[in-house]
Fold this protein.
Amino acid sequence: MSDPPVTLRDVAARAGVHPATASRALSPETRILVSEETARRVLAAARELGYRPNPVARSLRTRRSHTVGVLIPDLNNPLFPPIVRGLDDRLAASGYVALIGNTDGDDERERVVFEQMRARHVDGFVLATAHLRSTLLAEAARAELPVVLVNRLAEDYSFPSVSVDNERGVRMAVTHLAALGHRRIAHIAGPQDLSTGLNRYRGFVAAMAASGLPVDPGLVVFAERFSLQEGQRCCRELLALPERCTAVAAGNDMLALGCYAALDAAGLRCPDDMSVVGFNDMPFIDLLKPPLTTVRFPHYQVGTEAAQLLLERIGGNDGPVKILYLAPEFITRGSTARVPADRGPADRVPSDA
Amino acid sequence: MSDPPVTLRDVAARAGVHPATASRALSPETRILVSEETARRVLAAARELGYRPNPVARSLRTRRSHTVGVLIPDLNNPLFPPIVRGLDDRLAASGYVALIGNTDGDDERERVVFEQMRARHVDGFVLATAHLRSTLLAEAARAELPVVLVNRLAEDYSFPSVSVDNERGVRMAVTHLAALGHRRIAHIAGPQDLSTGLNRYRGFVAAMAASGLPVDPGLVVFAERFSLQEGQRCCRELLALPERCTAVAAGNDMLALGCYAALDAAGLRCPDDMSVVGFNDMPFIDLLKPPLTTVRFPHYQVGTEAAQLLLERIGGNDGPVKILYLAPEFITRGSTARVPADRGPADRVPSDA
DNA sequence: TTGTAGGCGTTATCAC
DNA sequence: GTGATAACGCCTACAA
């Protein structure tokens, strides 16, 4: 009942040639080695029999699996689906497929998944895991495995990478707020052991300086995770300050949502009482009240570009390592407004502080 | 520089045995065939050399790729990440990996991706693509390829499947609304060529009957896509009706969000003027104003169960075909309220109608 | 209990 | 230009 798989021998037999010749005729690169007539006969036979090369056997011979490993923290984090689609679309166009591995930010799991993929002989890796340090890079370098980093940079080793320019994104946010008249601008920074958290914090300091604004150390609060809860906690701290800020540049959208919650709980309103800027432009974040002003990251392009870089390395391109930055886009929506004209600091006391 | 891969021969040589013996010692199933002493030596040698069996060679022999194809419409649709994670977690636990293919709901792309995965010799398929009809199933049946369906049922062929019980979900929604005193309950139905759209519509009709409520045909509107825009359009139609409904059971969360928009535009408020129930409990939908009352689907479990079923079929389990339904959970939030006590129908005219 | 030999399907390297 | 041959790494009758 189930079709017996058609092999190269079958095709060769039908075309009346040796399997080796059939093989040459079937591969575009080696087709020039056979006579035109033979090539036509082989191709025809292959088509008639519905021949499909066995990629497993081919891999065994060529030591190429046409497979790449992709390590991400968690597919459920809305940043990653578009990145993965970008990767997948670009890879598929070149006959590659991605093996997705979720690490949950756990170093041990990361190592296990990495090893399993190595065992499957992937041709390369895209690493989008969060933590800055990792022995994986050293190992990959030793094994001469092509690797591309996403949204992080290598410190010791030089690996190609694709990232969104976080500093530039923060500068857009700060510039926007400054143009609205804000001077006391706070920053809720993400975890400093994540490159996004660190770079956005650094970018904030630089952007404030560039805008000629002082950075009040009290107005920089550090979240321990990129979560709504942490954003809420940090915002509460800011609201408790004697001299309050008029705007917050949050480390990402989740932290910004935490600000919404904290303001709500304090009986304050956004943007009337405080402007809030997020980061990432998560799906559906434009449907909130108020719709969040944020910095949009071209996630899909991050994926396609990372795939492109990886394919270049796999293809044996030994040129200089490329470090690619993609520009973010600033999305002005309803959570930012001009600074209230004549309102002294702390003219209202938050209800729960 | 790059490590020469350790093969079975290397292990055998170090243990002083023949490769065949080493092979037996390394496989748990055949280990009993070998003396305990030999087994220990081989295992030790393998560990010392860091031996990892080459899955490609193994696949060539065993005709098992330990790989399954997963076809979904679009990873960016927030329903799918949790399903894919569920699949992946369960599959990984059995040494399988998933190849994800996005079809974008396009029949042609679906067929191409399917063929490519077949060419890669996947051991089975999880099909979560949307359209009800498909020649893929016939083809898979002919090739005796294990297949599990997700959120859809086979019509002609009998395939195992995992779905959430849509009828039951609608019944929960209708029962909830009826308990709040609503009698004129509308339904914004999803596309009827999708099983979710169709089954929820059928479920709505049945649930209304079960609650002893009449179904006013005018109160059932059909959306052409599961999109916010379509939800808005359909809700606008409902608001233009002379005898207005007091509650809407939407075909999914996006359609419910469309209701939010339409009510907003009409100067009406939810739930005061109209109750709205969604479907799916999308991420972050609880952060909207008002937080959406909806039917939560256990997406992650759909993934793990589908993987489980597929692994059973791949393992040669030829028992009766399992059709698995998972119960949804009703989440009461802020978008539903008691029907306004003494308010005649259509006492307000929508501003744009 | 262990060794021998052959083959899974393909491609690379010979020789003709 | 084409055919023969070997090998990729592993598994498994079969023989010893």
